[in-house]
Amino acid sequence: MTAIAPVDNSNTVPAVPTKSTSGKAVARKTGLTLGAWIVGLIVFLPIGWMVITAFKPESAAETWPPRFTFSPTLSEFTIVFSGMGPYITNSAIATIGSTILVLVLGLPAAYALSVRPVKRWRDGLFFFISTKMLPVVAAIGPLYILVLRTGLLDSIWALIILYAAMNLPLAIWMLRSFMLEVPSETLEAARLDGAGRIREITEVIMPVVSPGLVSTALICVIFAWNELFLALNLTVTKAATMPMFLISSVPQEGLYIAHLSAAATVASVPVIIVGWIAQRSLVRGLSMGAIK
Amino acid sequence: MAAVTYSKASRVYAKGAVPAVDTLDLGIKDGEFMVLVGPSGSGKTTALRMLAGLEPVDAGRVEIGGADVSGTPPKDRDIAMVFQNYALYPGKTVAENMGFALKMQRVPKPERDRRVREAARLLDLDESMLDRKPKQLSGGQRQRVAMGRAIVREPKVFLMDEPLSNLDAKLRVHTRGQIAELQRRLGITTVYVTHDQVEAMTMGHRVAVLSGGRLQQCGTPRELYDNPVNQFVAGFIGSPAMNLRTAPLADGGALLPGTVIPLPPGLPSGLSEVVVGIRPEHLRLTTKDNPGIPNGSSRLLSGHVILVEELGADALLHVRLDGDSGGDSGGVPGERGGDPVVARAEGRRPPSPGEKVTLSVDPADVLAFHPGTGARIAA
Chain B contact for A197, CB < 8 A? Predict the structure, then answer.
């Protein structure tokens, strides 16, 4: 009888507590939403201010108190566009080139660490992520000498190779977690159906992995596009990238804020677009390993 | 179409570990529907995967059609497998899924289409479904596509690894019949793995019961039910399970509360107790009109009903025998004397809980097992 009693209770006195808890739930939800909006606004405010400032004439850019009324102008953008041509080309080449390299190297690596794991695959996996533990600053000395001796100083090739090396560990981890999503039984079915290794990859694994491949590529694009430290130390003019262009726009005297804002806005646009496209698969790709 | 033979086949996962499949000897005839059944960890799936080539054969041989295939890669064994989770290719349409093996064999497209459509018709898969992706199908439809993928290959052997376990109960019963019927029509040798003894009994021409990597018994469902070779098979086959309990020996019989059941004369000497097994339908409820001693040899067991499970056509009575302690031994049948026995009674007017009943049993229906080895003690 004791086992039945609680069930009876919940049947007879449900109305009041349910109502109050649902009321609490609504309040909680409202509070959370409000909090999220506040945090969002705090994060967005400087960015918004940057975009607004980019449209100001230089005279109105830095005033105290800040001015909200001004006649918007594209003059700063015009200056930025006229100067950034080679930088944006370099950035595009370094970004796309390194991302392709990452995928070409990362896909087989991820395959060998997931679908058909090599011996000591755990060690391999740890090795890849351990390369991210060393601060780049600590490596820049040797890197500089290597790049200098190979004659790649101020060459876009140096950036392509280094950006690929920089993104490869993360890409391998992400691609691996996507490949683990392919059920082993499906791979076995393919083996029974007579698919060789190539067919297994092209016909069975790729269709499952391709969304993950896209999000991995996009994250590599974002990281490579934004990279400054290596570009700053290993390039001068010939191979200088967008972040370098931004730095060159930083005025020593604290003037030309509108110009800097315009340059920063232009530099952010590709990343924002890519991030927006990638956001859904990005969250999935990054959290997948965590769930398993 | 071909016969399949396991010849002392073993699979050991790690050095020194207990073999997952231990020197399995099993012959499957051409066109036969063989069911491998056993609890989880019994090695039934491993045995199937050895036949598929997905697990190596560490010792012994596996033969298909008389040829040793132990070292042959899966694709060259001319077999088709249906997986538990169907393992359909998510990026491909139903037709592409079914025709993939043929494509790999470079069968020309018109021929491929013809065979896919034929298989679809055989499985009642709608023509319009062929262009859908697996994601857009229900569980039952996916199951049929997985079957279709196996059928279009027209293989020597079908392998099925619990293909019904992801379906709901009603669909499972329906599909069970369909698969058995299809196999009969196609006449292709089939090895079917399941943990469900009802599936095993209803589908298989013969059933092989495995436990702990070893083959316990292989026979027709009727043989397994009527003549289990040991206590494991007796307890595993049949639903509700056979009543098994350890009983002390007393002058030529097993001592149950209130009666002595005569045992076959071939008792090994030195035993002080045996395990007796009685099927629930062999415990007959006696009433005033039916005293239950038709030939005078029946023995009577009295007790009171503690639970009635109504199944419609019949009812299962859980009866605690008089003289048994009330303490439950934790549900392990046969472990101790205190467990209630289960009797199958006519469903119309079963006794109610608490009622005193008398059950009669014909000693000819009672099986005896060795308490140590579990082996059947037969006359």
Answer: no
H or E element at residue B24: strand B21-28
Edge-to-edge strands, sheet with B79-82: B79-82, B157-161, B189-194, B33-37, B206-211, B214-219
Q: How far apart are CA A61 and CA B264, in angstroms?
A: 107
Domains and CATH numbers, chain B: 4-236 (3.40.50.300), 243-377 (2.40.50.140)
Alpha carbons B362 and B369: distance in angstroms, whole number: 17
Whole-angstrom distance, CA of residue A160 vs CA of residue A168: 12
A264's CB contacts (< 8 A; 6+ apart) are A50, A54, A246, A249
Q: Is the ipTM of this complex over 0.90?
A: no
Q: Are A132 and A165 in contact (CB under 8 A)?
A: no
* Fold entry, domain A77-291: MetI-like fold (1.10.3720)
Tokens of B4: 């399949």
Q: How far is CA B262 from CA A253, B280, B297, in A?
A: 111, 19, 10
> Can you tell me the distance from the alpha carbon of B325 to that of B340, in angstroms, rounded to the nearest whole number?
10
By C-alpha distance, which of B1, B77, B7 is closest to B32? B1
Per-residue pLDDT of A42-100, as tens digits, reads: 999 999 988 988 888 877 777 777 777 778 888 888 888 888 888 999 999 999 999 99
| B271-309: pLDDT as tens digits | 888 999 999 999 988 876 666 555 567 888 889 999 999
Number of cross-chain residue pairs from A and B with Cβ atoms under 8 Å apart: 64
- Rounded CA gap, B309 and B342, in Å? 10
How far lies B225's CA from each of B237, B240, B378, in Å? 6, 12, 15
- Which chain B residues have a beta carbon less than 8 Å from that of A199? 104
| Closest by CA position to A180, among listed A108, A113, A126 | A113
Site from A116, A192, A199, A206 to mutate, B interface, most B CB atoms within 10 angstroms: A192
What residue of A is the nearest CA neighbor of B82?
Answer: A189
Instruction: Quote the CA–CA distance of B195 and B234 in Å, as a whole number.
Output: 15
Shortest CA distance to B367 belongs to which of B217, B251, B266?
B266
